[in-house]
Amino acid sequence: MAQYRLGVLGGMGPQATNTFYQFILDRTAARSDQEHVNALILSDVDMPDRTAAILGSEEEQEAVYRRLLADARLLENAGCTCIAVPCNTSHFFLDRVQEGVRVPILHMIRETARLLAARGLRRPGILATDGTIRTGLYQKEFSAAGIQAVIPTPEAQGLVMSLIYDDVKAGRDGDPQKFAAIHEDLLSQGCDCGVLACTELSVFADRHHLPPFYTDAMAVLAERAVEACHRPLRHIFIK
Fold first, then answer.
1. Is the distance from CB of 170 to CB of 186 less than 8 angstroms?
2. Strands of 124-127's sheet, edge to edge?
3. Which one from 191, 193, 198, 229 is the annotated catalytic residue?
4. 10 has which bridge partners?
5. Tens digits of per-residue pLDDT, 15-47?
6. How does pLDDT run across 139-185, given as a tens digit for each residue?
7. Catalytic pick among 80, 82, 87, 229
8. Is 80 a catalytic residue?
9. Are 59 and 26 contacting, i.e. CB atoms less than 8 angstroms apart?
10. Does 198 participate in catalysis according to the annotation?
């Protein structure tokens, strides 16, 4: 049997990387240690902030790109046969990083777009960092799949950023009242679903009960990672 090994380019942030690996364990229908996914996890906590870089100078963007590329090559040279990056904002750089490595980088945003299109959903609200929103990462990929992505109002987006940075990245569970206000904003804009498009929001969802209205992009990535490593998939409704 061919040896498949997943490379996880993580640390953005560390708790999100931990949650992502748990997602992989939960979605692998393993009956023994040997049936789980072989994985090498690189938690690069010194990676510069992606949102700050995207909204900053070309020099700051180049620094993030170079570090992502170096990490991807490290995983490739360690024998990883595919790479997953549990950080939505970093996908701004990943097509370029892909050009510098031979192994496939699983694309969380495109995989999520395919899933929603297959479910017949057409107006998702995107909950993400300012960097992800302003660069149109989700808007572009979703439009290509025939989906109209909706972004929060400025007031609601401020709550999204507070939930990500002031709460989860600061080690807190997250404020459900903030999320409730964000949810009402999406409903008021006629969204037929919502996408957790930041891995800190995946952490929030792991600690709080969210309605099936939401699809977690990191959970989608976890399923694709199990499949890419040819391990038995335990089907869990992706929320």
1. no
2. 124-127, 193-196, 214-216
3. 198
4. 43
5. 999 999 999 999 999 999 999 999 999 999 999
6. 999 999 999 999 999 999 999 999 999 999 999 999 999 999 999 99
7. 87
8. no
9. no
10. yes
Q: Which residues of 20-45 are buried (b: 16+ CB within 10 A; e: fewer)?
A: bbebbeebbeeeeeeebbebebbebe
**What is the C-alpha to C-alpha distance for residues 217 and 157, in angstroms, rounded to an integer?**
18
Q: What per-residue confidence (pLDDT) applies to 235?
A: 75
HEC per residue, the chain: CCCCCEEEEECCCHHHHHHHHHHHHHCECCCCHHHCCCEEEEECCCCCCHHHHHCCCHHHHHHHHHHHHHHHHHHHHCCCCEEECCCCCCHHHHHHHHCCCCCCEECHHHHHHHHHHHCCCCCEEEECCHHHHHHCHHHHHHHHCCCCCECCCHHHHHHHHHHHHHHHCCCCCCCHHHHHHHHHHHHHCCCCEEEECCHHHHHHHHHCCCCCCEEEHHHHHHHHHHHHCCCCECCCCCC
Local confidence band at 138 (pLDDT 50, 70, 90 cut-offs): very high
Q: Which of 2, 72, 14, 75 is nearest to 200 (CA)?
A: 14
**Residues, the chain:** 239
Tell me the residue type at 61: Q
Q: What is the pTM of this model?
A: 0.93
8 Å CB contact between 239 and 216: yes
- The burial of 15, by beta-carbon neighbours within 10 Å (0-12 exposed, 13-18 middle, 19 or more buried), is given as middle
What per-residue confidence (pLDDT) applies to 219?
A: 96
CB half-sphere exposure, 98, CA atoms < 13 A: 14
Over residues 68-91, mean pLDDT? 97
Contact by Cβ (8 Å): 164, 205:
no
